[in-house]
Design brief:
Structural class: alpha/beta
Distance between the termini: 11 Å
Strand content: 25-35%
Helix content: 10-25%
Order of helices and strands: EEEEEEHEEHEHEEHEHE
Number of strands: 13
Radius of gyration: 17 Å
Number of helices: 5
Number of domains: 2
CATH topology of the largest domain: Rossmann fold
Length: about 210
């Protein structure tokens, strides 16, 4: 097993009260959308995180446990270790429009996929879902790419009231020739698998799991 490469945290962006984006002084030009790196915190542990951008290497992390809490306490200039990229990643189908569906911080790796799809001339539609308006992330980043995300919030505080699955259902039935790519909470992914099976739509889903 290769040892981690030690790099510096270049920037820390506060997305919400519980999500931060870490821009590292590193580049992974060989990375593919949907792949992940192992991030090592000295004296703490090592955990997998999906790649939101390969150059500079960018990771968006929610504070959900001891490791991510420790990472959220890091400061710009601190050093961490990385290994990777790992994982299969998404296989972009270039002959069909792409429907990207992200729930919560699962939208971050889909930003990488959107950039790649647009570079290859693939039409992209993005659904960004969250519980409430102040939990939404990456909306402005997609707009900077020339995309206008379909926004859903559970409480209706911004965009369509409902879930990302609700929005995806309507979009797929408007245009069944899309390919669905998704990342987010597992209940959302399970519902999207069922949707793809019912409608005969190709789908690729990304799930983050702890590994050593």
């Amino acid at each position: 097993m290769p040892l981690p490469t030690v790099v510096t945290i270049r920037h820390i962006l506060v997305e919400t009260r519980w999500i931060r984006t870490f821009v590292l002084d590193a580049s992974l030009p060989e990375a593919e959308p949907g792949q992940f790196v192992m991030l090592w915190l000295p004296g703490v542990d090592e955990k997998p995180f999906s790649i939101a951008r390969p150059d500079p290497l960018t990771l968006t992390v929610a504070r959900v446990g001891p490791f991510s809490t420790a990472l959220h306490q890091a400061r710009e200039g601190d050093r961490v270790g990385i290994r990777g990229p790992f994982g299969r990643g998404f296989s972009l189908m270039e002959d069909r429009p792409a429907l990207l569906v992200g729930g919560g911080y699962g939208i971050a790796p889909l930003y990488f996929l959107a950039v790649r799809a647009l570079e290859r001339g693939v039409p992209v539609t993005v659904v960004v879902g969250a519980r409430r308006a102040n939990d939404l992330i990456y909306v402005d980043r997609f707009r900077a790419l020339g995309l206008e995300p379909v926004i859903t919030t559970d409480d209706g505080s911004l965009g369509m009231q409902g879930t990302a699955v609700d929005a995806a259902t309507g979009l797929l039935r408007e245009d069944p020739f899309r390919v669905l790519y998704a990342c987010g909470p597992e209940p959302m992914l399970v519902a999207l698998v069922q949707l793809c099976q019912e409608d005969g739509v190709p789908g690729q889903l990304s799930v983050e799991r702890y590994m050593k």
